């Protein structure tokens, strides 16, 4: 499994990735995410397709140390999507491991994310990975923090 830039050659294939029906309330589509990234350059969006071999199986987008706003200078996991056909195979966990390594290599001491609470929410996935609630709520979403151990 690896992360790959989204280009004109793979954009259409990555846009076809979909979550299960009951998960749509928790994660925006790839198309909507790319549009949001284009509309919010101040968030310093960084995104990649998640590949298994030569096949796109997921999508990830971060706000990479934005210069302003509530997450100024921090790394915020904005989107993590694994296609419904590939869920339950450790792809989300592996993608998150790679993202955490990249963020840590950039000098970060933490990675933030958030989720919308509800039936089928992603909290168990993030909790198992080591994220903890910060106590903050951002636009109705619970903010989580993954703290990296000191080197």
UniProtKB/TrEMBL annotation:
Domain N-acetyltransferase: 1-149
Pfam families given in the database record: Acetyltransf_1
PROSITE patterns noted in UniProt: GNAT
GO molecular function, one term: acyltransferase activity, transferring groups other than amino-acyl groups
Alphabetized InterPro entries for the sequence: Acyl_CoA_acyltransferase (IPR016181), GNAT_dom (IPR000182), Sper_AcTfrase_N (IPR027455)
Keyword Acetylation: no
Protein name: GNAT family N-acetyltransferase
Keywords, sorted A to Z: Transferase
The UniProt record lists the keyword ATP-binding: no
């Amino acid at each position: 499994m690896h992360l790959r830039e989204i280009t004109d050659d793979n954009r259409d294939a990555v846009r076809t990735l979909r979550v299960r029906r009951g998960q749509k309330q928790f994660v925006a589509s790839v198309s909507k995410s790319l549009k949001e990234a284009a509309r919010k350059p101040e968030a310093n969006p960084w995104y990649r397709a998640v590949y298994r071999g030569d096949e796109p199986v997921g999508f990830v987008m971060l706000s990479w140390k934005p210069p302003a706003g509530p997450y100024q200078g921090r790394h915020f996991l904005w989107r993590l999507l694994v296609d419904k056909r590939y869920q339950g195979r450790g792809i989300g966990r592996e993608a998150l491991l790679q993202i955490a390594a990249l963020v840590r290599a950039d000098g970060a001491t933490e990675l933030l994310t958030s989720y919308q609470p509800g039936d089928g929410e992603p909290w168990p996935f993030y909790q198992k990975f080591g994220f903890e609630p910060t106590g903050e709520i951002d636009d109705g979403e619970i903010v989580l923090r993954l703290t990296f151990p000191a080197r």
